[in-house]
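Hi both,

Apologies for the delay on this - the queue was longer than expected. I finally got the S-adenosylmethionine-bound model through. Below you'll find the protein sequence and the ligand SMILES exactly as submitted, and right after that the structure tokens for the full complex including the ligand.
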Amino acid sequence: MNFVSDDYYYLKAKYKGYRSRASYKLLEIEQKFSIFQKNQIVLDLGAAPGGWSQVASKKVGKNGKVLAIDKAYISPFKEENIEIINKDIFDEELKDLIEENYGEIDVLLSDCSPNISGDYSRDHFTQIYLANRALDLSQSLLKSEGCFVCKLFQGKELQDFTNKVKESFEAIKLFKPKSSRKKSAEIYIIGLKLRKHN
Ligand SMILES: C[S@@+](CC[C@H](N)C(=O)[O-])C[C@H]1O[C@@H](n2cnc3c(N)ncnc32)[C@H](O)[C@@H]1O
């Protein structure tokens, strides 16, 4: 039996022309929290193969922009408002590159995840490490009242990370989309309205 083609969201994504089933997680987040508006600039960290970028591209429209960042190769998009930046999110030049070329960002998304090792606590810590980098970037690149969405794995460090996000955003929510596999420990944190400390 082919388990992959058994997956409802996988098949739906294929049918709709999305590059990954992950698109449906972002669509659910958008439906619940209304994070996007037309003409916004969106930073999509860990964007490959590109399902989230496709969703964001449509939401911000042709006068908006999506910066799709991944250390892995992303094949070119037909959507003209998506730019690919092939970089590791820990690249020291990334912050300046974004600031100098695109200015302040409206929405920062991170669906980054490590290669799963099978050692749960190791994967959880690596995930938190990626999430902390995404939060740091959101604090320096987002405009005041900007929005943050980040993948986490449930576990020991979740509460501390949630508290950190709480300090920077006026409201936070933890959300498990229906399209996220039930057995997966992933959960998303949504930070609404960045408090900018100048
Ligand atoms: C679950 S996939 C993202 C799926 C994507 N949101 C979509 O809709 O198609 C996670 C991605 O995180 C990326 N990633 C993990 N660590 C990274 C890092 N340090 N810098 C950049 N990308 C990273 C991986 O290369 C992988 O492509």
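Main takeaway for now: The chain has a mean pLDDT of 94.

I'll put the files on the shared drive as well.

H.
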